Amino acid sequence: MLNNGIAPQQGKPKPFWLLAEITYRCPLHCAFCYNPTDYAHHTKNELGTAGWIQTLRDARKMGALQLGISGGEPLLRGDIEEIVAEAGSLGYYSNLITSGVGLTEKRIAEFKRGGLDHIQLSMHDITKEINNFITDTNTFELKKKVAAMIKDYGYPMVLNVVIHRYNIEHIGEILEMAEALGADYVELANTQYYGWSLLNRAQLMPTREQLDKAEKITNRFRDRVGNKMRVFFVVPDYYADRPKKCMNGWGEVFMIVTADGTVLPCHSARVLPGLEFPSVRDRDLEWIWNESPAFNKYRGDAWMKEPCRTCPEKEKDLGGCRCQTYLLTGDAEGADPVCALSPTHHVILEAIEEAKNPQIAAQPIIFRNDRNSKRLIEGELRERAEAFHALP
Amino acid sequence: MFDKIRSEDVYRRNSHFRFQYEEAQGGYVLLYPEGMVRLNPGAGEVLRRLDGNKSVAALVEELKAAFPDAPELEADVLAMLELALDKTWIVKG
User: Fold this and answer.
1) Disulfide: which of A70, A93, A308, A372 matches A304 by Cβ 3.0-4.6 Å?
2) CB distance A5–B31 less than 8 Å?
């Protein structure tokens, strides 16, 4: 009866995790945003309230349990209260992923009534200067107020801090701030390079020395606070020699429904060539998850080429991330270049070198905003985008 | 071996986790921010009975009555409680 108390996973994959990216509109303009650089294409034609409610019902029937309500900034929509209440009555464990902009007493009280389980708030730094710089907005004081409000309403406080060159040396102080705010969970998410953050990679990437130091400080902090606060340190894969098991496998546990109803197996799958991602407007979710060619394309390991196909570690990481591989090498089916065994590993080493080059690193950051998205769609800023496949 | 767990102790499920039966999983799960634990049937049986009112001894009696054919049930239950305590799925009192 023991077996660590945990039931083994059996049978067909199920979409336990449903991420609802209900809008791409956002008041913040973060340099590290993973949203598509051509998001301006996807801001029109958002799925309406009835469409979201139907999607929640259908996914729940398929076994979805964890619900993330994200964006863009989800609070820009006026119908989150209805969506949250529906999620509550369906038995989801629901999570609002927000910058805090637009969260009022009235709304948080309504979320509580509707059964929202927790609120994940993004924080950026202990200094007003860096918070306001990296998000390209004046939001520092607001975030602190929102954190206090989350606590007042009895929510577990989950802080998400994206880590990059500008805040990595403040990691100890960031953790102390989280402790002072009463955080229960802190996610220190080292920037992963997709979308906007890929365009700004040379400007955002910390050095290996900075990373090692940050990890040491984090471990010391964990030892001190013990069980009181859970600290996750998401390691940046550029400094690893094996790739991450991206999304825990393509079409295994994770499903994203984007603002316009397009369904994806991961955040940036849209960049991949030759794949048509179905929409909840046209097909039922069950067919999309189980039968659609897109969700079956990289399921399992039948698609693998060498060196992954015969690699003894292939089950461990399933060859890494398809999107990263395509963006950096132009071949979606190769080994993730992060892997030291990949024939294209040099592109990662070059990127690390490039980030150390003061001339390249001093190029201006391209912030995530409508104007820059339109410029990228129209083919401007080529010098920054052309090194990568499928950008914008 | 199970020196942490005493028969007179009373445990309850940690309110930081949501505990619920999942039809699609055919079992109980514990949910928390950004994660979940799919409990095996043994852990599910133990956790669903922890209401914060009964002692470990009473819990063991209840399980013995429910599963009269299970061998070494008491040792299994104590081991499960120790594991659950270690993982903070349950708290004392």
Assistant:
1) A308
2) no
Quote the distance between the C-alpha of residue A320 and its chain's center: 16
Instruction: Tell me how crowded residue A152 is: count the other CB atoms within 10 A of its CB.
Output: 10
Could you tell me which residues come within 8 angstroms of residue A346 by beta carbon, excluding any fewer than 6 positions away?
Answer: A337
Q: Which of residues 131-150 of A touch B (CB under 8 A)?
A: none
A118 touches chain B (CB under 8 A): yes
Q: What is the pTM of this model?
A: 0.92
Nearby residues of A127 by Cβ (< 8 Å), 6 or more positions away: A140, A170
Q: Do B42 and A16 touch (CB under 8 A)?
A: no
**pLDDT digits (tens), chain A, 392 positions:** 456 777 777 778 999 999 999 999 999 999 999 998 999 888 889 999 999 999 999 999 999 999 999 999 999 999 999 999 999 999 999 999 999 999 999 999 999 999 999 999 999 999 999 989 899 999 999 999 999 999 999 998 899 999 999 999 999 999 999 999 999 999 999 999 999 999 999 999 999 999 999 999 999 999 999 878 999 998 889 999 999 999 999 999 999 999 999 999 999 999 999 999 999 999 999 999 999 999 999 999 999 999 999 999 999 999 999 999 999 999 999 999 999 999 999 999 999 999 999 998 889 999 999 999 999 999 998 888 888 887 55
Chain A residues within an 8 Å CB radius of B24: 14, 62-63, 65
CB contact under 8 A, B40 and A7: yes
Which residue from A minimizes the CA distance to B88?
A: A227
Kindly provide the ipTM of the predicted complex, given to two decimals: 0.83
Give the type of residue at A67: L
Which residue intervals of A318-368 are DSSP H helices?
Answer: 322-329, 346-356, 358-361
